[in-house]
Design a protein that fits this description.
Length: about 350
Amino acid sequence: MTTPAFVPGLELARRFYTEAVGPLLAQAAPGIPHSATRIGPGSEVLGYDTPRSADHEWGPRLQLFLRPQDASRHAARIGRVLAERLPKTFHGFPTHFAPTGETRDIRVMRATDGPVHHRVEITHVSAWFTDTLGFDPTTGITPADWLRTPTQSLAEVTAGAVFHDGLHALTPLRAALRWYPLDLWRYVLACQWQRIAHEEAFVGRCAEVGDELGATVVAARLARHLMRLCLLMDRRYPPYGKWLGTAFARTTAGDRLTPVLTAALTATDHHEREHRLATAYETVAALHNQLGLTDPIDPTTRPYHSRPFRVLRADRFAQALLSGVTDPAIRELPLPGPPDTEPENAPQP
């Protein structure tokens, strides 16, 4: 079977709905309103897919949302119609997804002569968002909902594309989830600055005792914190590790800071590493001042108390942001503790 030319997954999904799924749905369920979209997990949703992505859970796929009562009555039947009547291939890509052999939960495009095991998910809005986010945003979004939801999940439901919104629900719902309310944005930024504050003096201290490996590890953690901070300042949800560098490169500061952070992590002596990190700190601090979320804060680095380690004192930014929070319940929320006290996979605002 000839491998077709790569098509970005979102464009493939759009064509799949317009040319194949939509017409079959009109025949199988005439008069039943629906919405069609490609959101949720998948590199194509964030726009990061490449030909490599086709090795699992990539291909002609999308979600169909029905009204709850229609989903319970018609979803199974519509799924069977699609299995029987969808073309076996679409623009050269199989519409059948077979198990990889490692687990039945992960599937890959494969040719078939029988009904296709398609990747058209048919459900209703409340059920899908509850399964994906852990809460139902159609009933409102609380501060706890925002803060316990990983930024990767928020990115997945607000990126992607909507091809048809006959339910008139997806577009306003995605708009509501697009970014944190102002007080929560200030709090999330304060948390990220505080993570930097916890570790910024450790790079120099590690180097002082001859622990170059330890200094590099801490510098890498600080680089990650700075990258996530730049995304948050750009009002973009930071993705998980695989795509963090890709997303960061597209931020306002990406072009300037990528070579600086790279140099910090490849430095072979403490002074060069410290100089590069200081440049990064001051660049990000200046970007903070441009946001207008606080009064201007001195963006220059300084010694760490009596120790000769050059730091920003990032806690100044965290406290300034918290002081601007008007909701007393959010203002009283704790800032994150030392990193090692946090579960490795805990959501990070």
